[in-house]
Amino acid sequence: MREELISRNVARIVETPTVDSQEVRPLDAAEARTLLKVAQPHRLHALWLLLVSTGLRRGEALALTWSDVDLNAGTLRVRRNVQRIRRELIFGTPKTKRSVRTISLPQRCVRALSAHREQQERERKVAGAKWKPTAGQPAGLVFTTKSGGVTDPRGLNRMLTILCREARVRRVRVHDIRHTCASLLLAQGIDARTIMETLGHSTITMTLDTYAHVMGATLRAASDRNGRRVGPRRIRRRSGE
Questions:
Q1: Could you say which of 8, 48, 138, 177 would form a disulfide bridge with 39 (CB–CB 3.0 to 4.6 Å)?
Q2: pTM for the predicted model, two decimal places
Q3: Residue range of the domain that includes 158
């Protein structure tokens, strides 16, 4: 149409299909605590704690380097991701501009990451000459294999399946851990704007639409608390009145 080779764009009359969004299935607080307790002895315990606490995407967490983490300030910077494309693990930039973000870390995560860095140094010494990073990976990856390579994103799904079985909680996907983080934040009364920034959503609409069912329960609980706070109090009558 721009070149005036056709008079109309027939693609405009095509009806696009309706895609049903997949149901969000987050763990509740008790399930999340049980899962993390079972993951405590795991060499990647810090990773699971980080996923539950910050809602990082799987590829974002596995692409973190130690230069992205400031343990003194208690922050980490998300600026790349990793994904498997056919037989290769490819590092790239996050999916949207808002995905590039700085996240505040709970002290529990800071302690876990400090312990993980010490463990990684021990693994490096044990591996010796066998410590061989995967070709093309950034220097200083936080979560590596025992030989210093990239942790395969697909492998996390298998790890989580095993952890769920051992913890005797229902089986969830790694992406459901991200939803778990958002749900737990909402339950604590954290506002949607902060959650949007933490998760790296492109718009607040995405946050509100994705977690509408959780927000409804949170708003009802907040309304009940507010009602109790401002409602009339019982007047105690003294004896003889």
A1: 48
A2: 0.79
A3: 23-219
